[in-house]
Structures are given as C-alpha cells and as structure tokens.
Amino acid sequence: MSDSAVSPSEPQEAAVRPSLLALFNAFASASLSAFGGALPWVRRAIVEQRGWMTAEEFNETFSLAQFLPGANALNVAIVLGARFRGPAGAAAAFSGLLGPPLAIVLVLAFLYDRYGNVATLNHVLAGISCSATGLIIAFVAKMIAPLFKRRDWGPAIAIIGFICVAIVQWPLPLVFIGLAPISVALAWFRR
User: Fold this and answer.
1) Kindly report the CA angle at 129 between 24 and 164, in degrees rounded to 5?
2) For residue 165, what is the DSSP state?
3) N or C: which end of the chain has fewer CB within 10 A?
4) pTM higher than the cut 0.70
5) Chain centroid offset of residue 155 CA
6) How far apart are CA 139 and CA 170, in angstroms?
7) What is residue 47's DSSP assignment?
8) Alpha-carbon span 100 to 82, nearest angstrom
9) Contact present, 144 and 63 (Cβ < 8 Å)
10) Which stretches within the chain are classed as H helix?
11) 118: region left, alpha or beta (phi > 0 left; psi from -120 to 50 alpha)
C-alpha cells in the first residue's frame, strides 16, 4: 500500500505516515483548488481522499489551529505536517499550502493593478464571493456533523458559540475565552 492513501477495507485509525512529497502534493493540490478558502479542501484531501485522519481527528486539529495565533489553514498545515513528519513535514505542508497560490496571487495582483477598474471584473468578483460563501457553509456543515453524532454537549457549545458571535456579535476572542474552559471541563468530566 502506498503511504499516501488508505484502502477502503482498512480502518481509518490505521497509522498513516505520508511522505514529504505526499504532504507537499496534498497541500499544494488543496491550495490550488481553494477558491474561497483552503480549509474545506484541506479537510477533503486529508480526511476524505487520503484517509490520513478521521473527521474527529481533523476537528481536534482544527480546534488547536483555531486557538493558535495566525491563519487557521496555515496552522492546520503546520500542525498536520509536524504530526506526520516532524519539522520537515511542517515545512513541506507549509510550502505546499503557500507556494503555488503565492505565485498565482502575485501575477493576479499585477493584472488587477493594471485592469482593476474594468466594470466586468467587479461583476465577476461579486459572483465569486457568493461561491466562496457557499463553500464555507458546506465546510461548517461537514465539521459539525461529527459533533451531532456523539450525542453529548458538543452541539450545545457550538450553538452557543454561534449565537454569541453571529447573532449577539460579541468578539470572537471573548467568546472563545468564555467557552473554551467550559468545553474542556465538560470533555474532562465525560471521560
């Protein structure tokens, strides 16, 4: 079996240790597909396509990435790369996630600087923003599904967090500081 995929007959808990090239390719592929955000594509590549992690493991890694300062997708790449291959894996995942899009964005920035005032381009960008929003909604739905399957306090914490940030419009750091200790305590007592 190759180190870049788990066969369907094997359990997802199988110890998978992708190569540095496989890590780079997975994150480069996700980043090049990631119009509107890399995280849904990273999750798809890591959980659904390659089977390197379960949905629950990805959610736990994402939670850590959310807690760390910096961009979530970048944090996920570094944490996953380090988990699988140490510092070299973190560098491979980081390079795959940022390298190809950086080259593309530099070219697009030049073109936008030159042609950004064209009205048609503004309509195209407005349409793209709608697609990106749909992608984010789909990503959230996939991430929350394992929480509802566990039949514990997880969905309640997620809903409270959503209400506090999206509806009440409290600052995300404040909500996180308030809900994180409660969530950790509930998880601790559940064990």
Assistant:
1) 90
2) I
3) C
4) no
5) 19
6) 23
7) I
8) 20
9) no
10) 20-33, 39-43, 55-67, 72-115, 119-150, 154-162, 172-190
11) beta
